[in-house]
Amino acid sequence: MDLEAVLTEKAKLIDKELERVFPKKGTPNLNDAVWYHLGTGGKRVRPILGIITCEALGGDSHKILPFAAACEIMHNWLLVHDDIEDNDTVRRNQPALWVKYGTGHAINVGDYMAHKVFELILSSRAYGVDEQTTLRLSEILIDAALKTAEGQTKDMNLRNSNAPTEHEYMDMVTAKTAHYLTLPMLGGAIIANVDRTIVGAIREFGVHAGPAFQITDDVLDLTEGKGRREIGRDIKEGKRSLLVVHCLTKCSTAEKKKLLEILNRPADKTPDADVRWAVQLFEKHGSIAYSQKRAEELIGQAKQRIAATPPALRSVLDEFADFLIHRKR
């Protein structure tokens, strides 16, 4: 499967569904704000993953369109609020929504998107999804949203620690990233009406693939900037990434003191020279290589969890897993 070609093709289906939900001539200063954010790009990876999972399991991909679009909206509502929480001023190489429209309205837009998520799921009934399945889709989305919020809190809490452990990092990143990455795959399996053992295997796949995705994201922040002009923003925000956790166990007392001073300083008080110093420290102590190795290990474990699933699903998810850790942004 040419995953890039599939992403391009299926993204059109998701965009069409998003346009149905957010008419571009809707309420002034509301739908246009939504499209300011949605229109900045993004591969629509999560909803497309739901579609191809459903197809691989023999399900009707038409039925999953509302749920798949709901997963994309959920992802973007979280990004809108995340940018405010982290004081990130740039999203996909343009001013973040809160910078463009103001913090108050950005919160309102994020809330609007959140409510649209559930409206979309309810609309699944018009696509031939029965009420029991619609309820199950609502349940898994609520569960993912709650766990993601808990994970975001754990992330914020961890930024106050001067001795973060890898166990704490993995607990945080699993909650923050794994569940809503797995969500569309679970939806695809539920709509395909497969055995619960397959649903369980997909969930276990995501528990390992999600952290691998985030670790790769942390490394990309030091190289590609995750679609932002600024390199090393996570350092300025004081995030306790796996790179930081590993480095703190390897560096000297003096290096540890300086690194923590940089991480604990307000983002706007952290010069680029300090970011470069931190990156060089990560390189010196092998923290970048270690993080990349852990991501590879986690992807290997994720693939093991789906080894007994139908070949068509296994093929799709194996390729997606490789995409997660080999992408450039």
Structure characterization notes:
Strand 1 and strand 2 form a beta hairpin. The protein is mainly α and 329 residues long. The chain is globular. The protein has one domain: Orthogonal Bundle (Farnesyl Diphosphate Synthase), CATH 1.10.600.
What's the SSE blueprint?
Elements: H1 3-21, H2 31-38, H3 45-56, H4 65-86, E1 90-91, E2 94-95, H5 97-101, H6 103-122, H7 131-158, H8 166-191, H9 196-220, H10 233-236, H11 242-250, H12 253-263, H13 272-284, H14 287-305, H15 311-326
Antiparallel strand pairs: 1-2
Helix pairs in contact: 1-3, 1-4, 3-4, 3-8, 3-15, 4-6, 4-8, 7-8, 8-9, 9-14, 9-15, 11-14, 14-15
Helix tally equals: 15
Class based on secondary structure composition and strand pairing: mainly alpha
How many strands in all? Answer: 2
User: What is the H-and-E element order?
Assistant: HHHHEEHHHHHHHHHHH
Helicity range of the residues? Answer: over 70%
Rounded to an integer in angstroms, the radius of gyration calculated over CA atoms is 20 Å
Task: List its traits.
329 residues, mainly alpha, two-stranded antiparallel ribbon
